[in-house]
Structure formats: C-alpha cells, structure tokens
Amino acid sequence: MTDVPKTSTTTDLADLDVQTPADAGTVVELEHPVTGGPIVDAAGVPWSITVAGDDSRAVRAIDRKHQDRRAERMRKSGDWTMDSDSLDAERVERLATATLTWQGLVLNGVVLECTPKAAAKLYADKRFAWISEQVTRAMVDRKRFFHINSPS
Description:
Elements: H1 19-24, E1 26-29, E2 48-51, H2 57-77, H3 84-98, E3 99-103, E4 106-107, E5 110-111, H4 116-124, H5 129-140
Antiparallel strand pairs: 1-2, 2-3, 4-5
C-alpha cells in the first residue's frame, strides 16, 4: 500500500474515530412520551441526559463483562439461556454505565441527582421506559457523536 499525501478531498481514518466521541457522550434532550415535545424546567431549560455511545470504552467494557458472565455460565453448566429478569438487569446496568450526567430531572418534586445508583433506579422503573428508549436510540446513533468535516 502506498502512502498518499493528505489533501483536502482525502478522508483520513483518524477523522472517522468513533470511540473518542462516543466516550465524550451526546446530549439527549428528553421528549414528552405522548406529545413528543420537549420537557423543560421553569426556566425553559430542556431536561437532558448525556450518554456515552455504544462505541465508548465504558459501554464496550460492560458488554464484555456481560458476555464473559454468560460464557462462564455456559462453561460451568452448559446453560446459555437467560431469563427476562437477567436480561433486564443487564440492560439497566448498561444504560447506567453509559449515563454521564443529566439535567433537570425531577421526581415527586425532588430534583434527581445523577449517580450510578440513581441512573440504575431510573432505568429499572417501568413507569419511565420511554426514557430508556430515547437514551438507547441515541447511544446507537453514531451520527450524534461525531461529524465528518466537509472538504472546503
């Protein structure tokens, strides 16, 4: 393979790094589950959750942890099956791991502090499945995490 000098019309693989921007996260402005409109606080600031992407180191690490746990169970017992509670626990752990911060979330009049435990509790609560769905959609959308600069 011959190295060609970089020009303004040549794409460089370094510009297509998906891991670094996925680590930095993307802001998900929460949409009302019925109307689809933004949810805002009294000052008009949107409720938001900043999450790492599927390509982030943290999410890949939790995925490997889950895969290793399944492989170990298979090695020990030959059982690859997973019950729905185990799958849901993995989903919650994955979303909580990906959650970097949030803004504006209020439950029963109390502003929710963003901690791993609070994130896991939020994502496990079936009343708020719509939040998990919006966060999950954002995590897999690579376009949200980086942009290719157009040649000038």
